[in-house]
Amino acid sequence: MKKQTFGVIVTTRSFFPSHLVKTAREQICAKLDELGYGYVMVGEQDTQYGAVLTFDEAKTCAELFKAHRDEICGIICVLPNFGEELGVAEAIDLAGLDVPVLVQACDDDFEKLDMANRRDAFCGKISLCNNLYQRGIPFTDTTLHTCAIDSPAFTADLEKFAAVCRVVTGLRGARIAMLGARPVAFNTVRYSEKILQSHKISVQTVDMSEIIFAAQNYPDGEKVRAKEAEIRAYGSIPSYIEDFKITRQAKLCLAIEEYVDALQCQASTVQCWDSVENNYGCATCLAMSMMGEKGKPSACESDVLGAVSMLAARLAAGTAPALMDWNNNIRDDRDSCISLHCSNFPKSFFQNPEMEIECLDVLGSTLGQDKCFGACKAQVGPGPMTFVRLTTDDVRGVMKMYVGEGEFGAEPIPTKGGVANCRVPHLQELMKYICKNGYEHHVCFVRGHVADVLAEALSTYLGVEVYRHV
To answer: What pTM value is reported for the model?
Structure first.
């Protein structure tokens, strides 16, 4: 993952003690170094104390930030004391980077409220936020209104902010490959390409016949042999699967990967049934799983917004997501359900060493098993998870999403495919929200708890209407 770099603004007010600024600069630099982030900030030789107070100092800071526009993914504002809110707001405004902004204010020491040490950052933060609000500059707050720079609370806030910046940077200008039209029966995955484009996300379409033609005519050689070896190492393949089916699958994997790469897309979605099975002779799941494992999520059934959801989850968590159906109840436990798909889940998402590469079950029963090799099957291992779904509400002309957190359970699920035992607090209320608001049956899951990151990035910075399920 590329190292993230932040623009840092430390501010002060002239009649507050200058030693607080020096300490804050040292602490924020040390903290960012410790966490492995880069930073750009004015030096002590550039402005008084290396802080931003005046309009001239705001211009100096803005010019520095503009010179590093391609590096800076977010701006961190540090208030060691009350600060000069106008100078900070002007610096951000003049720089015009349009990146996320984090506002931090330092704790006062109750035993040091004398004039030599008193901060008043508790109050100054309100003034800074007021000025940002007036200028229409969106910003992120810390968990605590004030906190020490070297505190665990601020460390967690920085890590969360870095994830917010990854999501915002990664979705703005994202390119999604749509390989094949949606299955005819799946009106549920219809969407507005124009609404997506208004959020700076574009869709690159490819007819499925081009993918099939490329796979059918892929030359034998070292690339195919290497992909065959990669497939064999990726999961357990039953002994009855003939070698030619693995070769056929390898060529399809290469054809899909090369199209997505050539289009310079960060995620994709594939018309996974039933043209490719009938006209080429295998499933697309494995190719999609392997791309997802390498950092390029791929959604089923030409679900473009599913792919966008997966990309957002990948950026937030830094791990491979999966797209599933909300599928079955579990007995009378109304806060649990089964989610599943055929599946194309990435290997690391399963966290199950028994993952098997075999044939599609449902489609195989109708199309024929001989046409359906390439499904990744296992139960998803237990652990914390986040679920998220974006959609375009075409009637209202907006993009919206729901997001929340839960757990994958360990109880075995007695059915086939890629399956997950999901526990979500207040699941019935969530299902009512999904049904009442016209969402798709597909949902993206990713390991870990990153719902707050996704909600902050999409609502504060990307103009998406967000329902945060709790």
So the answer is: 0.97
